[in-house]
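Worked example 3 (structure in, sequence out).
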């Protein structure tokens, strides 16, 4: 704790130093340059006035990084803990602590949740029906935000906002090719005239994943966004998209074939419509509806070695994770400005999830999962430089008790170039249906003998609750044109949900080697205390540095739970522009020890070692015969091969080396547009 405390004090001192440097500077107000954010409260607020820490990743930064994998961009966000178990599997969490399929952060595309009930409550980042070219910016709320976006916003929110269809009409195309079978083709076409705009994007990607792993990936995405300005007050928006592909999963030497090498095929479809009406007297209302539909075919045969007199020649046991889900969501939102010093928003949501996965729910398919929400936020600028933002949400999900999620923040802006905030929020975690009703049983087909019962249903799991307090600073100094964002936090989680071994009345044959397990609530509070900050520097006009650093102390009374939080993360990114259209980007990431996910065996304990990795990009951009051209050389995972997220069951084999080390990847990209 002393080390953590020293770093926290240093971060606050750095903030105070920036404030002192900026205090006398009234010219070129920094906050006039800050983006307006909507994700924190659904109210348009300057970043310094938002009730919480928010990181904005704009289109320019996304392009400068050149990543093909959207989740990799999030490594630059303070507090984010991101890793890959294999080339086609991304593990994205805020402050760690998550299971194999993190569900503690709400992930949105244009306000539409992309969590899939059939993906064990998580997000399949490699299968999102979204291309990089569509993204305008990403807003990451670092801290509980259930009052605005529901119980999945337990620790924070990632909102991916796509470009308006009327922006930059024209055509563009791109191709990529490189090592590890990397290849891709993308194209975009957009038009805007007489109030109607539309944008069409197509994207095809492939790669062979990491060397030595069974993780080949193929994906195709087709999406369309259209915006129609009916009149000065009304606008209709529509987004439809589909993605599909296949990816290799598992390990050829998985214990008892429980996670054997196999191929999964997936299909995702979305329909998202919105009607927005701007009122003449100020404010607006919006009506939204969306449907998410996803399907996954994932089946294989586990071949067991000779085990007992029952199976002298071994046994072939059919397993599958075939699943599909449909989510329908209807939402109304109204915002108004009752006075020049205040604004408010309220809304209501209805949602229904339907899941079909016979093998994952041996006791029968779960019924429809309904959610009802009411929410409201209010901003009041009660004195010069002072404001409060308060809000609350009432939510009921799947027969759970009605839950109240309040939030209250005080912001102080003593001068143009710096702002302070302090606040409290409470949130309840929406339990994935699998954690409560998942019941998986594997039988030998000829004899009917129960081989394994890896997941046992537990209807007594309670919703986890978090109470979060934070102090934050956002400011700028004229020294090296520096910008600093600091968040000190204390998060207390009650009834934390995790997986542990349990008894089974079915007496599975492999009960010792692959014990039955279920999800339970931890009997002690889990606390996360720490500091995170991001420092932007522009040491010269053509260069920019971005430093992010996080220190966290997790205390739960259980080493197995504490190990799910990396005690530190740090990243440094240098973006440099050169004459004649040349530019370069270098990112260095340092990740602390981390045990991400559960794996196929609850008894397997494993922590991936700390690692450092480097990404590089060199690009040239210009015009050739009236067309814009960009050529880039990109490389990721440079340096010593390392492991990021382990499969615990695979590591329990006791081999000398990590089973899933990442591979360096290099590719050449060419973009052409008008």
């Amino acid at each position: 704790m002393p080390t953590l405390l020293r770093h926290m004090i240093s971060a606050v001192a750095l903030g105070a130093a920036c404030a002192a440097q900026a205090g006398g500077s009234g010219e070129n107000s920094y906050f006039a340059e800050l983006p307006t954010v909507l994700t924190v409260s659904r109210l348009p607020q300057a970043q310094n006035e938002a009730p919480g820490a928010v990181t904005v990743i704009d289109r320019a930064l996304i392009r400068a990084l050149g990543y093909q994998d959207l989740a990799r961009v999030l490594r630059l966000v303070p507090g984010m803990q991101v890793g890959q178990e294999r080339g086609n599997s991304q593990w994205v969490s805020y402050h760690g602590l998550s299971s194999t399929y993190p569900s503690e952060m709400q992930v949105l595309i244009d306000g539409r949740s992309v969590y899939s009930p059939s993906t064990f409550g998580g997000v399949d980042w490699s299968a999102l029906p979204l291309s990089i070219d569509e993204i305008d910016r990403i807003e990451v709320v670092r801290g509980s935000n259930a009052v605005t976006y529901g119980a999945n916003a337990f620790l924070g929110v990632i909102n991916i906002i796509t470009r308006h269809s009327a922006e930059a009409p024209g055509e563009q195309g791109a191709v990529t090719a490189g090592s590890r079978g990397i290849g891709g083709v993308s194209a975009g076409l957009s038009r805007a005239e007489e109030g109607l705009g539309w944008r069409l994007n197509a994207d095809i990607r492939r790669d062979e994943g990491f060397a030595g792993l069974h993780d080949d990936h193929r994906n195709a995405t087709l999406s369309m966004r259209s915006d129609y300005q009916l009149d000065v007050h009304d606008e209709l928006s529509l987004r439809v998209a589909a993605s599909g592909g296949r990816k290799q999963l598992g390990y050829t030497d998985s214990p008892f074939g429980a996670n054997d090498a196999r191929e999964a095929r997936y299909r995702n479809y979305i329909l998202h419509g919105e009607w927005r009406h701007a009122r003449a007297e100020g404010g607006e209302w919006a009506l939204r509806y969306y449907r998410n539909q996803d399907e996954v075919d994932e089946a294989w045969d586990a071949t067991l070695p000779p085990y007992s007199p029952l199976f002298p020649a071994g046994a072939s046991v059919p397993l599958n994770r075939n699943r599909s889900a449909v989510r329908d969501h209807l939402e109304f939102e109204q915002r108004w400005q009752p006075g020049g010093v205040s604004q408010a928003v309220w809304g209501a949501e209805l949602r229904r999830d339907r899941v079909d996965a016979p093998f994952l729910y041996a006791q029968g398919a779960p019924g429809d999962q309904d959610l009802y929400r009411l929410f409201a936020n209010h901003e009041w600028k009660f004195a010069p430089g002072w404001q409060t933002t308060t809000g609350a949400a009432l939510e009921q999900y799947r027969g759970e008790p009605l839950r109240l999620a309040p939030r209250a923040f005080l912001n102080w802006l003593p001068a143009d170039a710096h702002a302070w905030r302090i606040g409290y929020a409470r949130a309840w975690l929406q339990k994935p249906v699998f954690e409560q009703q998942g019941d998986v049983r594997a039988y030998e087909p000829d004899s009917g003998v129960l081989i394994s019962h890896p997941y046992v249903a537990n209807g007594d799991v309670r919703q986890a609750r978090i109470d979060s307090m934070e102090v934050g600073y956002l400011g700028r100094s004229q020294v090296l044109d520096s910008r600093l964002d600091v968040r000190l936090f204390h998060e207390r989680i009650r009834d934390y949900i995790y997986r542990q071994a349990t008894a089974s009345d079915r007496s599975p044959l492999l009960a010792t080697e692959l014990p039955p397990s279920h999800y339970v609530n931890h009997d002690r509070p889990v606390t996360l205390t720490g500091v995170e900050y991001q420092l932007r520097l522009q040491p010269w006009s053509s260069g920019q540095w971005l430093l992010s650093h996080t220190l966290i102390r997790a205390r739960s009374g259980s080493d197995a739970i504490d190990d799910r939080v990396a005690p530190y993360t740090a990243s440094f990114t240098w973006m440099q522009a050169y004459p004649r259209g040349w530019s370069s980007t270098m990112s260095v990431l340092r990740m602390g020890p981390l045990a991400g996910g559960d794996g196929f065996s609850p008894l397997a304990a494993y922590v991936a070692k700390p690692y450092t990795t480097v990404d590089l990009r060199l690009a040239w951009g210009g015009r050739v015969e009236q067309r814009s051209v960009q050529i880039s050389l990109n490389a990721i995972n440079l340096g010593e091969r390392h492991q990021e997220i382990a499969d615990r069951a695979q590591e329990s084999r006791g081999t000398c080396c990590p089973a899933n080390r990442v591979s360096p990847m290099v590719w050449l990209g060419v973009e052409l547009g008008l």
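Notes: The two ends are 56 Å apart (CA to CA). DSSP finds seven helices and 37 strands in the chain.
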